[in-house]
Fold this sequence. Notes:
Radius of gyration: 19 Å
Largest sheet: 3 strands, antiparallel
Shape: flat
Strand order of the largest sheet: 2-1-6
Distance between the termini: 41 Å
Amino acid sequence: MGGFGFKKKNAEEPVKKRTRTIIKCEECEKTFYSDEINLNNAADSCTCKNLKIGIIKPKDSVFLFYVTVTWSISRPKFYDEYLDI
Length: 85
């Protein structure tokens, strides 16, 4: 048996929240934000040289670039943060 439904008159639309990824060095506490990494500042590293941030430009992809993170001493912490829209 099929069915259908109706929205309540006072039902709120779900709020879409944008996030960004935070990359934090465990050695020197330097923090990188994914929304600040772009083609103009693609190569970066933290002060202790543990982390190196870079990009790879793919061929035939819907993405403009991929972010690469390499480390030499300790693995960084990765987490997401909600942004106000």
